[in-house]
Design goal:
The chain is α/β, with parallel strands linked by helices. It is 44% helix and 23% strand. The radius of gyration is 19 Å and the shape is globular. The two termini are 24 Å apart.
Length: 277
């Protein structure tokens, strides 16, 4: 069980029997269920046309309770992997729901400390282990090992949404806007931090080169890379090609990010996510 900020393909969700509990998005007073009545590309269009910054909220506890009851009805155990607590109250809602459903003994909940494809890597590992008949302890240990060796590198080129959402202080926000500042975000141990600041396209190119160098240095220990973006598919596919040139065996998934991330990261943002085995 996971949440809709995760980056998984429809084929992966079906093949590994993954349950995705959707978050809710509100745009100018109208609410949508993520992935059910609004697509990722539709969201970006609506976000750009909206008067106010969209609001995202965790799944209703009732929906979590119903999902947990359904999944545990046949005596199954459930593992829930959710986006970082620093980004959302989703994991707390899942814990509360397990208590309300009276299933705390049968539901194991993990903070992915990340989101998007990084969260997806953990979910896929757990699902594959589950299908292979591994115990809950083995699955949890494997997920935590991946979590401890993951990297999320995010480039934010337009700070407008971060400033509007209060994720940057008003003063630093004003300065950033004046100077055309771009920032690199990372999430060590589940905490969002500004790793670097710079100006213009040159700064973005240096970011790409640094991340590609890190992938090259670990090219035999990286099997999967996720590239997630808000609204720039072409340059992201070009970036994927550069990774494939480093090692053709690395599987690269290029996909639009979720509304939960797009809302705060804004237009032009993208992230590169991977783990080192």
């Amino acid at each position: 069980m996971t949440d809709s900020s995760v980056q998984l393909t429809p084929e992966e969700i079906k093949k590994y029997d993954i349950t995705v509990v959707p978050l809710t998005i509100t745009i100018d007073g109208k609410s949508y269920i993520d992935g059910e009545d609004i697509t990722r590309s539709d969201f970006v269009k609506k976000m750009n046309e909206a008067e106010n910054l969209p609001k995202t909220s965790q799944p209703p506890i009732g929906r979590f309770v119903d999902t947990i009851k359904k999944l545990t009805a046949d005596g199954s155990q459930v593992i829930g992997i959710f986006l970082a607590k620093a980004l959302s109250g989703t994991i707390d809602a899942a814990r509360q729901a397990a208590e309300i459903a009276g299933q705390t003994d049968n539901v194991t909940i993990i903070d992915s400390e990340l989101t998007d494809r990084a969260e997806g890597f953990q979910v896929l590992a757990a699902a594959k282990d589950s299908q292979a008949g591994k115990s809950m302890d083995e699955i949890v240990a494997h997920v935590k090992k991946i979590r401890d060796n993951q990297t999320l590198e995010m480039m934010v080129v337009n700070l407008k949404n971060l400033i509007k959402g209060g994720r940057l202080g008003a003063l630093s926000g004003r300065i950033a806007t004046m100077l055309n500042i771009r920032i690199v975000l990372q999430m060590p141990h589940g905490k969002l931090k500004v790793a670097k600041k710079g100006r213009g396209k040159k700064f973005t190119r240096a970011f790409d080169e640094r991340v590609l160098k890190e992938i090259e240095e670990n090219k035999d220990r990286i099997k999967e890379v996720g590239i997630s973006y808000v609204d720039t598919p072409e340059p992201m596919h070009e970036l994927a090609d550069k990774i494939k040139q480093i090692n053709p065996d690395i599987n690269v998934l290029v996909a639009e990010t979720s509304p939960i991330i797009a809302t705060h990261a804004g237009n032009g943002a993208y992230a590169i996510l991977f783990y080192v085995e």
